[in-house]
Every structure is written in structure tokens, then in C-alpha cells.
Amino acid sequence: MTRPTPIRVVLADDERMVRTALRAILSAEPDLEVVGEAATGAEAVSVVRDLRPDVVLMDVRMPEIDGIRATEQILATLDEPPRIVVVTTFENDSYVYDALRAGAAGFLLKRADADALVQTVRLVARSDSLLFPAAVRTLATEHARAHPAPPAWVAKLTGREREVLRHMAEGLTNAEIARRMEVGPATVKSHVAAVLAKTGTRDRTQAVIAAYEAGFLNAG
Amino acid sequence: MTRPTPIRVVLADDERMVRTALRAILSAEPDLEVVGEAATGAEAVSVVRDLRPDVVLMDVRMPEIDGIRATEQILATLDEPPRIVVVTTFENDSYVYDALRAGAAGFLLKRADADALVQTVRLVARSDSLLFPAAVRTLATEHARAHPAPPAWVAKLTGREREVLRHMAEGLTNAEIARRMEVGPATVKSHVAAVLAKTGTRDRTQAVIAAYEAGFLNAG
DNA sequence: TCGCCTCTCCCCCGTCCGGCGGAGGCGGAT
DNA sequence: ATCCGCCTCCGCCGGACGGGGGAGAGGCGA
Fold first, then answer.
1. What are the pLDDT digits (tens) for B29-56?
2. Taking CB atoms and an 8 Å cutoff, what residues of chain B touch A203?
3. pLDDT band for position A90 (50/70/90)?
4. Phi and psi of B56, rounded to 5°?
5. pLDDT per residue over B183-206, tens digit each?
6. Any A CB within 8 A of B106 CB
7. ∠ CA A36-A42-A45, rounded to 5°
8. Structural contact between residues A82 and A54, judged by C-beta atoms closer than 8 angstroms
9. Which of residues 156-175 of A touch strand D (CB under 7 A)?
10. Which numeric CATH code is attached to A7-146?
11. Domain boundaries, given as residue ranges, for chain A
12. Top-level CATH class of B152-213?
């Protein structure tokens, strides 16, 4: 079952030792061949463009251009792009979702052992990337929409103002919020006014919309 | 590279012809063995429980219990559950998201050819299900939260009322909505009143919240 | 043809809301 | 010791909002 032509791999990681270790592991397999290395995202793009490998092992954290952007650029500019395996530390890292959206074919945890590494490379090289690319891409895009980078105003809200905004987002009136928080209605009015000012909205409805759009209700 | 023990497969599909076709394809491979069949979801659960296969090909549409629920039950009740491949028609079928959440290991399109079928079975049998199970499960769960079953009131809104609700959800006042829709302010008030009545809310803020919670803004 | 629904618009009225300016207390930072 | 930010509260005002009622025009199916 030895492949006539080996799977050609490019390594992109800013740490030389990591690249060396990966190369050692992959080179031990007769069907895998490390054809190039890159220490930055930009370098990765050009190396891949030149060498046209089958698989790229792409670290997420790299100087100049991170692994996600490099992935995007490679997939966007090349006609028959390689499968890109994103190397990350945690499976639930937010990078994972960005990478999925960018079109990564697979993932590898940094704590993965040599066997998992080799298996993953073989897997993505042979399979049609994901088992269900479109669905997962859709999910990742939705995830990005549901968790946008929190706008600046979120950090500027005081604790009390956050509470008030949450209650506003439950559809409560000022008087009801006052009862819930055990303060006077005038106090709530003050907080509401502060929230409107800081969110740049003109009424409670717009403030609640902003809260939803910002994902304010899910996050802290 | 022939496996010492073949991959044991169970087929779950309510159409006999489909099962027969699948069996014919899979049986041609020396490393695959079809050990059982099921025509309903309930049957699938019990057959899998008895035969303990490595892989289950699970149709989504089945009598009694659909493939999704059967998948859930199998994964919830068995200690070392098989990899479950959900068979669906469209890659962006809503079933896909349900199946992901239920813990399916892979997908197969009904129009897939024999080679893809065999490859997929081998893939899920050998790989650790998904390349990134936790992340995708998270995504699928989020998807379910973002797209809940639309409440009854959505269907009851007239076309004009939907328009008004959308504009309310943009943070517009009645007067602004009136200008946008080129009608009188009184007309908008009527529509708003109708929306509040049908949504069971008491003010525009609560109506907008209901619209967000219902996913009204994404859907039709 | 007769209802029924939808869309359009009108009135009045009480309430809630948001904008304005102000003020006192309290605690942390410098 | 002083200043600044936060929380608490006050009054006043105009406008927006929501509730209640009503009514005419047009469409569409029973």
C-alpha cells in the first residue's frame, strides 16, 4: 500500500525546534516528505505558492501574518490549494472557528503524539478535506456572526449600567428594573441615560438591539 | 495492509432496496462486513445494542424514530458506541446540524458513489470520529440556539406587520417607519398594535426582543 | 353575493420615556 | 488631602408610545 508518490508536506511554524521535531516525525514515514518550511505567515504563503505541497501544517501564532490569514490567502489565490492543517493548543480555541471559516481541512493539537500527527496528515491528504465542508463552514460563519468582537462601549459600562442593560434586554420598564434592583426609579433613569450615551443609542429599544448585536447577553 | 478483523457495519434504512445496494457495495470490500440491518430507528437501536458494530450507516428519515433520535439514543446508552454515519440528501440539510449535535461521526450524501461510501466508512472507523469533535459540537449547539423553531406568532403576522416588526428591530420610531413605508403614522401605530397583540408583548422593546429570540430577523 | 381579512387612517388620553440640570455620599487613586 | 468616578436620588418638560375605539376601501374565498 506504499504510495508511488509521497505526500508532500510544508511546515509553517515560527519556532525552529518545532519544525525540526515535526520534520523528524514525518520523515520517518516513507509515504511522507517534508519539502519546505516557513517561519512566518507571509513566508508560508510564498513557500506554498512555489512548492505546491499536498499538505501544510500551519501554526496559528506566527509573526507578520498569522496562520489564519495565511490560510485564507493560500486558499484564495491558488487554483488547486493544498489541504491546510491548523496547529493549535486547545480544541475549543477561538482560532479553531476562524480556521474553519478560512477553510482549513483539519486540526492538530500541539499535544498530539507522533502517531496522531502522521495519521492526520494522511487523512487530510486523502479525504475530501472535511466530511461535510459546506455545513461546517456555515456553522463557523454563523459563529462569527453570533460572537462579534465586542464593541468599545461594552468595556465602558459600569457594573450597574450592565445590570440595567440586561434588565432592559428582558423587556422591563424603568419602574420594574427599579424594583428588581431595589433602588429608586430615578436611579434607574440615570443608569439608562448613561447606557444610551455610552452605546450611542437614543432609546431603550436601540440599546437592546445593540446589546443583542454585540453578543452582550451571552458574554460577561 | 488488510485488517485482521474487518470493520463491522450495520445498515439502518427503511427502504429495502437501499439496504441491499449498500450491502452489495460494502460486501465487495474485504475489510468491510455488514453484520446487520434495521428498517426503523427503534430497530436500529436494538440491533446496534446486540451486534455492537464499528460503524452504523443511519438514514435520517425512518419510521417510529428518526435517525437523529436513534443516534442520540445509541450514543447515550452504549458504553463504547459505534461511529455513526448519517445518510442525508443535502449537505446543508438542517438534519446535518441536528446530527452533529447528536454526535454523528460523519456524513454521507445519498448521491455519493460507491468509492466515497467505502472511503467514508473506513475513515470514521479509523479516525477519532471528527477531526475536532468538541468544536463542531459547540458550533452545532450554537446553531440550534440561533435557529429555534419559530414560535406560532410568526405565522400569524401579516406581511405589513412583518415589515413593521423588522423596522422596529432596526430601532426606528413609528414616525420613521411611516416615512420608510410611505404610509401615515397612524397606520404604523395600527400595525405596531397588531404586532404587540400577536406577539403577546406590551411594548416595542419586548417585541424586538421576541423577534431576536425567535430568529425572526434571520429567517423569512 | 356575503363575510372576512388586510391595509389604511382618524380621534382622545394617560403613561412612559428620554433630555436637561443638579446634588450628595462614598471609595479608590495619587 | 484632594480629586475623580460611581451610585444614588430629585424635579421639570416635551415628545413618543400604547390602549381604546372607530371607519372606509380593497381583495379573496365560501
1. 999 999 999 999 999 999 999 999 999 9
2. 171, 173
3. confident
4. -120, 130
5. 999 999 999 999 999 999 999 999
6. yes
7. 55
8. yes
9. 158-161
10. 3.40.50.2300
11. 7-146, 152-213
12. mainly alpha
